[in-house]
Amino acid sequence: MKVIDPSFVVLDEDFRQGRLPEQIERCGRVCYKSEDRISPDSAGPFIKGIIKRGHESVLEMGQIVTEVVVDSESTMHRFFERIPRFCQVDKLERKRYLLSGNPRVFRDLARGHRDLKVVKAVSKLLSECYPVLFSDLIPSHGWIPQDSIVVRLLTPKEIDQLPIKQLIRHRTLLVHLTVNRAVTHELVRHRIASYLQESQRYCRYGEARFGGEVAFIRPCFFREGSDEYQLWLDAMSYTEKIYLDLLKTSSPQAARTVLPNSCKTEIMVHATLEEWMHILRLRTSKAADPSMREIMLALLPEFARRFPAVFGPIRDDLALGD
Ligand SMILES: Cc1cc2nc3c(=O)[nH]c(=O)nc-3n(C[C@H](O)[C@H](O)[C@H](O)COP(=O)(O)OP(=O)(O)OC[C@H]3O[C@@H](n4cnc5c(N)ncnc54)[C@H](O)[C@@H]3O)c2cc1C
Predict the structure, then answer these.
(1) Cα 189 to ligand 1 centroid, rounded to whole Å
(2) Number of helices and strands (H, E) in the chain?
(3) Tens of pLDDT, residues 64-99
């Protein structure tokens, strides 16, 4: 059995370098713990398989920000009547809009609202820029060009230079967290975000690639060396033994029924800066679960370093409150 500390990695390099399919593959493979199968050419086949199996939440692990210039305001109003929940739209000036979301948002638009001019124009551009993510949705006659609408993708640099009001709504951050199962259970209650989690149904912790053992997160509640810590260690050790015994005759999804909240898990969280502000305010508060607060207090300075104008005030308020 292994006892480890909670940790996080902010994954922003793929975004900054415009590697959207690669970022999606990196996240998707966390579910199956098959990161060792990533190669320079593996993103395309991986994403095709994901689409074929209908595991489309994997396609939420990236952000696309477009600028749309329309011929008339009524074109955009028709779009507003049907705008999906997870699509962000801001008016920049008359007939000029920012439209953003993850690839799944744009796939749902292309599938369900292809009669709209804005959707036709955006889908045409996206199927040209990211064929692996959008080519299966191209109508048999192709996307008809919309001469009256101009769409372009914003570069990562342009996104980062947006005024703060737009930056927090259109810029996202992706974080890879290694925490216990109680923390992930609480995290996924935040509904305006996307998640992918290591699957205890598929991961067989008895295998050599997991070291043949179960990993647990060190509890922040008990001091190492104390009687309580020893009780916790004994419980984890006994649980691991039963789990490994069950694996001899049962599937991982059956054996996992004995695994406790302290079990280590990995989760990818992808959300707009605005939603992260909400999460961090709630989860760094003294009222939050100490295990959750522990990792969020570690995350906050890193976010504040990257986006001081956005997360600096939350960090400063917290410091004042202490
Ligand atoms: C200290 C603490 C104690 C808690 N205790 C419990 C508990 O005992 N039991 C329990 O079940 N949960 C508990 N929770 C979880 C809590 O109830 C929320 O589910 C969780 O914090 C997610 O946050 P949220 O609902 O503000 O918003 P998110 O899901 O992060 O959404 C962000 C915002 O979007 C809006 N929004 C999103 N979805 C909807 C919707 N469907 N309708 C209307 N507005 C929406 C709201 O304005 C919301 O603030 C606790 C959380 C904390 C921080």
Answers:
(1) 6
(2) 15, 10
(3) 999 999 999 999 989 888 887 889 999 999 999 999
